[in-house]
Specification:
about 210 residues, alpha+beta, four-stranded antiparallel beta sheet, globular
């Protein structure tokens, strides 16, 4: 009986040692992989920001300024992140991630950049599940529709123009697919206008110079 107990205890110690080694190896692999994943995420975010915010508009570490929305924006579940572009210490633009919850086939994720003066520097759809050949035209890999936002100004006196043409606005819709571009335009307008109303407007430069 004592022999059985001794053998059982020895096996238990061996199993425990093996489990400890496996846990340690798994931890090392996890941390190494996590760093690689985070680096890839940051690189992808930098690439997306570069599509809506030209490099000549800022000289600060743009990614380091990105943060989750704080009051009063934290009450908006569709505004996900805000980044602040500066040049020579002066605010030149805001880049932001926003989500249109009312796409035809689900939420539509976007990233955009706008100056404190209300000039849209760029907009890109980063994730969508819209109908191929119809609603998915909002994404740059399918058409250049997203470029129609570039250099458009958002002001109090032209808010009604920030809509698809079917609603009396200045943005094209797609034949057989109005819901998707309408959702994108309305969400970009709503998020941009909130930023312009509440974020600092002073100490800005024009045209990134």
């Amino acid at each position: 009986m004592q022999k059985i107990i001794k053998i059982t205890g020895k096996n238990a110690l061996i199993l425990a040692a093996v489990a400890l080694v496996c846990a340690a190896v798994s931890a090392v692999i996890y941390y190494q992989t996590e760093k690689q994943i985070q680096a890839q995420i940051q690189a992808h975010k930098q690439q997306l920001l570069g599509q809506v915010l030209p490099q000549n508009w800022y000289d600060n570490d743009l990614l380091a300024t990105c943060h989750a929305p704080q009051a009063p924006f934290n009450q908006d579940p569709n505004l996900k992140e805000i980044c602040v572009a500066k040049k020579n210490g002066k605010i030149t633009a805001y880049a932001f991630e926003t989500v249109a919850p009312n796409g035809y086939a689900g939420p539509i994720h976007m990233i955009a950049a706008i100056t404190p003066q209300g000039e849209m520097l760029g907009m890109r759809v980063t994730e969508q599940h819209e109908t191929p050949g119809l609603g998915d035209k909002v994404e740059m890999k399918n058409t250049s529709w997203a470029e129609s936002f570039t250099h458009k100004f958002l002001r109090k006196d032209n808010l009604n123009q920030w809509a698809v043409k079917k609603d009396g606005g200045m943005f094209d819709q797609f034949t057989g697919a109005t819901i998707t571009p309408r959702a994108v335009v309305n969400q970009v307008k709503d998020s941009s206008w909130k930023l312009l109303q509440h974020l600092p407007q002073q100490n800005v430069t024009e045209n990134g110079q």
